[in-house]
Amino acid sequence: MDSPPMTPENLPLSEAEKIILRWDSTASEEAREKMIFDGDRHEVDLYLQAVDQIQRSISSTSISDDTNKVNPAVQIAMARLEDEFRNILISHTIPIEADSLTEQDLEQQPSSSSSPIHREAIDDESNYVHDEGNKLFRFNSEGTCSNVSVNSSYRSTSSIREIDLIPSEAVYDLRCIAERMISSGYLRECIQVYGSVRKSAVDLSFRKLGIEKLSIGDVQRLEWEQLETKIRRWIRAAKVCVRTLFASEKRLCEQIFDGIGTCIDDACFMETVKGPAIQLFNFAEAISISRRSPEKLFKILDLHDALMNLMPDIDFVFDSKSSDSIRVQAAEILSRLAEAARGILSEFENAVLREPSKVPVPGGTIHPLTRYVMNYISLISDYKVTLNELIVSKPSTGSRCSGDPSTPDMDFEEIEGQTPLAIHLIWIIVILQFNLDGKCKHYKDASLSHLFIMNNVHYIVQKVRGSSELREMIGDDYLRKLTGKFRQAATSYQRATWVGVLHCLRDEGLHVSGGFSSGVSKSALRERFKAFNAMFEEVHRTQCVWLIPDSQLREELRISISEKLIPAYRSFLGRFRSHIESGRHPENYIKYSVEDLEDDVLDFFEGIPVSLHLKRRSN
What we know:
Mean pLDDT: 83
Region (Disordered): 100-121
Function: Component of the exocyst complex.
Family: Belongs to the EXO70 family.
GO molecular function, one term: phosphatidylinositol-4,5-bisphosphate binding
Order of helices and strands: HHHHHHEEHHHHHHHHHHHHHHHHH
Strand order of the largest sheet: 1-2
Largest sheet: 2 strands, antiparallel
Strand content: under 5%
Distance between the termini: 119 Å
Pfam families: Exo70_C, Exo70_N
Structural class: mainly alpha
């Protein structure tokens, strides 16, 4: 008849002690070289039975954990179990793979941010704005967001994706060991071993995910171009860390320690991830308190949106009282990122207002400041959802007293009902125009100053019309106001340039007393032709090198000029040509045919000198 299997109840105490001593690594070379839980399952169960029997014998005589700890057999057993616990953890430590999990995580998460999936970089030519100290602000608008999904083998909230960090068989063994260590008073040792091994695993996953050990000071000393890359990497990695890595570590702690003692699973979890979590969030904190400048706005908004999207997951993963500090740190960083974004927007407005360059751009073309500002606010409009939540007040510089010559006036009642962001964008356009109005005064030629304003305001209008989001925020009413301004500038240009030229083609002053047919003063007529020739030649010479970059606007202005100039010249020539041709050297006075003028007008605003136009025609 078979003997019954050994259990804690029927295993003799002496036999239990022999089993414990046989696996004493301090006394046996074989015990040092072999691990119980790597071998036969029967041997594992027998060892656990021996530990249970010794614990039962001690508990029947004493309820003190201190008694357990001084018992030699218990001490040997606990040392052995601690080694076994560590070995199981280490042998199953596999870091999270960066590529697969990063891609999976992002694919599963639809972005609630208004930031674009892809954003083109702004042209280098326009990629600056000055502050009052004439320091160049540069920014890179590059930003990307990928898509991801992780199949959870356990449970899934809307975004948490837990995975099995350790096989279920090994989890069972770890729980068996943890129960016995904790019941014998070795809770602290168990937590320390667990935390040490699992923290190393988390650190290894951090390295795989590209998360560096950087202090706040280290981050703030990096160049912004370096930080942009690190921010993109951080956003991707943070999603994996919170939603997969930290969540899975929490789950593992629950599987091993839940129900064994009060909050032991949470203690082990915090022992494992508190340091890495602080390391992770320190990077975002360093960005949030770094020196503000316009080029940082979009990456700060990316960080803000990423952290905002992660906050429910952070609250879910770090839901215990002992992890309050992590939740508080994340919430404070989010608040500081919001404040940084508001501050940068305000400082950008002031930088645009105070940009001090006084050297006129050649040919009255679009000023680099105009390109920069309009490209910048086009990118700002991509973040309209976020910024409308963050902005709670009107532009500070727009509320100054009316009549301040250094600040434009703006009637906010005219745009009442607009979103907070729309008001700020309109204000930026207002101060940009105010700055441009100051810059146009540096042109010595009044016609060129009007052309400069026309070019720049037309560019503003085109940028607004070209962006559906920007046009929606700016509104058609204000867009019509801008359109009226560039058309008025075009009218002012024509008046400043062509009134004098057309004045030469009037009849007044050419007639002497008597009939019209015989009362023309040839000397006055010759002077009039000479004046016209000189004035048109000068306009042609100078305005060929002026530039209207927009081909449609350039053609429209040429047509408008031709509609006034050509009929007037044709009529004048028709009335008075015979008087000149009947005299000596008519070619000295009639230098242009109607066709010549039509050709010359086509040379205007190309940014090309007259000599090149002539060379091109001759070829």
